[in-house]
Amino acid sequence: AKYVKALRKLCEDFGFLLIFDEVQTGMGRTGKLFASESFDVVPDVLCLGKAVGGGFPLAIIASTKEIMGKWDTGAHGTTFGGHPVACAAGLAQLELIGRSDFLDSVRRKGEAFRHHLVALKERYPEIGDVRGLGLMNAMELVKEKKRPDPDKARFIQTYLQQKKILVLTCGPFKNVIRFIPPLNVEDGLLEVVLTAVEEAIKESHREMMPT
């Protein structure tokens, strides 16, 4: 939070626009409608996509009337921009996600999921870190001396894929596994994922040579 607030002040001091790309983090993913709310910072420009359309192709660039008014007429447009069906889907999506009980559910599930990942971290030293907000979480895999372990991350990813659980690796060293389930995921499915993650770690002990 300190970093984001410092960035906000830096932009204000030098007259820069603070732009938040919330294509992945927005629309309730972090337990708030927008991730920026978790840091108590308001950006000058907000970019949204993917979840904002509820499955329909839709993206949004939101800002103040003053900033958006600086576009020349027709300078910012697309052939299918503002499609009525996509916009209707977006409004319905916003109405659903904007409900406090829905966001409460996302936060509750995310906290429970991270709690179990932290418990795994305490048992398995190859889990170097667990972090996240809402239902956007990550597990970092490391070797001795906290060196990144992309091979272990790839092994776990492949194991989970064989169990029909899709996850991505990320980070500059590809040693981080991120978990981004549907926001309406059932608690039981999250438990299945956690069980499979522990199975994958145990299997890696048998299949991978120590490094």
Brief account:
Helix content is 42%, strand content 15%. It has 6 helices and 7 strands, in the order αβββαααββαββα.
CATH level 3 topology of the largest domain: Aspartate Aminotransferase, domain 1
- The tally of strands reads 7
Q: What would the average pLDDT be, to the nearest integer?
A: 94
**Globular, elongated, flat, extended or rod-shaped: what is the shape?**
globular
- Give the name of the CATH superfamily of the largest domain: Aspartate Aminotransferase, domain 1
User: From the 3D coordinates, which CATH architecture of the largest domain would you assign?
Assistant: Alpha-Beta Complex
Radius of gyration, Cα only, in angstroms?
20 Å
CATH classification, class level of the largest domain: Alpha Beta
Based on secondary structure, the structural category is alpha+beta
Number of domains: 2
Major sheet size, sense and barrel closure: 4 strands, antiparallel
Strand order of the largest sheet: 4-5-7-6
Strand percentage lies at: 5-15%
Give the % helix.
Answer: 40-55%
Number of DSSP helices?
Answer: 6
Given as residue ranges, the uncertain stretches (5+ residues, pLDDT < 50) are: none
Distance between the termini: 36 Å
Please provide the ordered H/E string of secondary-structure elements: HEEEHHHEEHEEH
Could you describe the 3D structure shown?
The protein has 211 residues and is α+β, with helices and mostly antiparallel strands. The protein has two domains: 2-98, 3-Layer(aba) Sandwich (Aspartate Aminotransferase, domain 2), CATH 3.40.640.10; 101-207, Aspartate Aminotransferase, domain 1. Helices cover 42% and strands 15% of the residues. It has helices spanning 2-14, 65-68, 84-97, 100-123, 150-162, 187-207, and strands spanning 19-21, 45-48, 60-63, 127-133, 136-141, 168-170, 176-179. The strands form two sheets. It has a four-stranded antiparallel beta sheet with strand order 4-5-7-6, with helices on one face. Strands 1-2-3 form a three-stranded mixed beta sheet. β6 and β7 (176-179) form a beta hairpin. α4 runs parallel beside α6 (187-207) and α5 (150-162) crosses α6. The longest helix has 24 residues, at 100-123. It is globular, with a radius of gyration of 20 Å.
